């Protein structure tokens, strides 16, 4: 009798465990394409490689293979730059089947002025920009520290926060689009200064939790798409 009761209890336990496992849902994942605006330049690759290694440990983040990214950029003839643009990020992100398109932005810094190196440049990472591939919104845009380890930490943190925005429930993420800053009362030579203020404000907004920034050019593109027959 005791044996039969134990078998019944064991069967019920297994049934309940199976039902619980059936009801569990797999954790949401976000596919990220991490690229550099200088392609395969040797001075940038170590930072990108270290950031990839750290991000690969993050639960919920799936990285696009570097070889796949290189193939697409080569095919599109974009290995040198031109990646920090919303429309370009959306197009390339879709080709890579990514959810987020993260660009380690670089700039060329001239070495010591010698005859042998006068025409050479040494690109260094200066900023991380992360776009949502579906909407073209900027989820993150922040400068990077000069040293390698802090830069890697900043990249990992920026991608992580962009992923959190990507996973945010509808209604919890506010999208903001800024009109160009208009110089109303300053001399015309201050126009560039006013535009810089607008760019800095956009960059600051992307670092706010729950905020995504839609660039003006991208908004105009979306509005034109909606005017097409059958567009929703």
Describe this structure in words.
The chain is an alpha/beta fold and 232 residues long. The chain has one domain. It is built from seven helices and seven strands, in the order H-E-H-E-H-H-E-E-E-H-E-H-E-H. A five-stranded mixed β-sheet has the order 2-1-3-4-5, with helices on both faces. Helix 6 links the parallel strand 6 and strand 7. Helix 2 crosses helix 5. The longest helix is centred in the N-terminal third of the chain and has 22 residues.
Structural class by sheet pairing and helices? alpha/beta
Output the strand order for the largest sheet.
Answer: 2-1-3-4-5
Estimate what percentage of residues fall within beta strands. 15-25%
Q: How many domains, in number, for the residues?
A: 1
Q: Termini, distance in Å?
A: 67 Å
Principal-axis shape: globular
Average the pLDDT over all residues and give the rounded result.
Answer: 78
> How many individual helices?
7
Number of E-type strands: 7
Q: What would you report as the Rg, rounded to the nearest angstrom?
A: 23 Å
> What is the H-and-E element order?
HEHEHHEEEHEHEH
Describe the sheet with the most strands: 5 strands, mixed
Stretches with pLDDT under 50, minimum 5 residues: 109-120
